[in-house]
Amino acid sequence: MPEATRPAFINCARCGAEKRVGPRGPIPTYCSAECRSAVQHQRIKQDGRYAEELQRARQRTVEQRAASARPCPYCDAPMSHPRRKQCGAPECKRRFTNDRAREFQRRYKEVHGNYYSRLYDRGKKRQYSITCAQCGREATVTKASSRYCSHQCFYDGRYGEDRPRENTREAAKLRRHAQAAARLEKAANGVSGKGVWTNGRCSHCGTEFTRHSFGTPATHCSAACRRSDRLLLRRALQHDLDAGRVSRIAIYQRDDWTCHICGDPVDRDAVVPDLAAPVLDHVVPLARGGSHHEANLRTAHFYCNSVKRDLVDGWSALAG
Fold first, then answer.
1. Shortest CA distance to 29 belongs to which of 44, 10, 15?
2. Fewer CB within 10 Å, N side or C side of the chain?
3. pLDDT tens per residue across span 124-167
């Protein structure tokens, strides 16, 4: 009788995946142990063995809980779990926690001689009886070198009884008001002890400000305005041109807030990138050798200045 041919591959009877067959041993039916276990579990469920075993396990659990049931030591409620110390009610939990803490403190005191809650208690300070050097009455203090019974007697004995009471809330409030008035006066005068107080109008945006600066008086209300003016100055210096510090507000007021390119008024409250926002325009652009001085600067719309670019004649730029 001819010998059966051993296949090189088989298809899993459950998922259909292809599996290589080894040279020896029985020919497998499934591709893995997972597929084999899944098929066996399905057979157990189909023939009813799984449901029977599950019912028996549940019955054993009920019997074990009934055998180990005991009452709660605090409220006599039944407890089925063998490891429960109390039934779980809030009052029973509180009483159980207190009993456990008291038992811990008792065992800790037997070993260390004092309770654990007294571990970080400070020792009582030694007390001394003195006669106050200011008012003459007997007092108890905690420092052997003390000569006065209170802070009031200490200040009266050291500075005199007629001194002004500087440690009151009213005096502190008056001092703060006096300091604020002094700062305002220094700002109005423009000079202070350690710096300069400036009360004026920002040369970039025109906002009124009061600032304290070291060295020279402040000319801008904020670092953003100062940075914007410095960018224009830096651009002029990069072209090796003659440049100086200018005031935007002064130029806007000189030109009556009117664009020199189109002749329409600019919006005073608008800021870039609003098309109607006021900006400074170089009549002779910096790229063509113009200077960064008030004589070469005019008021213009942000839109008109953008269209003009580096041309000298602004009207031809708008017409084109």
1. 10
2. N
3. 778 889 999 888 889 998 888 888 988 888 888 877 766 555 55
Q: How many CB atoms lie within 10 A of CB 150?
A: 13
Asked whether the beta carbons of 293 and 299 are under 8 A apart, the reply is no
CA dist 97 and 88 (Å) reads 12
Amino acid at 57: A
pLDDT of residue 93 exceeding 90, the answer is: yes
Radius of gyration of the CA atoms of the chain, in A: 47
Q: How do residues 198-208 score in pLDDT, each as one tens digit?
A: 777 787 777 77
Per-position DSSP letters for 227-277, written without gaps between them: HHHHHHHHHHHHTT--B----HHHHHHHTTTB-TTT-PBP-TT--TTSTT-
**3-class secondary structure, 129:** strand
Per-residue model confidence (pLDDT) at position 283: 84
More confident residue, 116 or 245: 116
> What is the amino acid identity at position 88?
G
Residue 266 · residue 299 · CB < 8 Å: yes
**Cα–Cα distance measured from residue 256 to residue 301, given in angstroms and rounded to the nearest whole number:** 13
Q: Model's pTM, two decimal places? A: 0.36
Q: Peptide bond before 217: cis, by omega within 30 degrees of 0?
A: no
pLDDT value at position 242? 63
- Cβ partners under 8 Å of residue 212, min gap 6: 187, 192, 195, 196, 197, 198
Q: How far, in Å, CA of 85 to CA of 72, rounded?
A: 8
Distance CA 320, CA 32 (A): 82
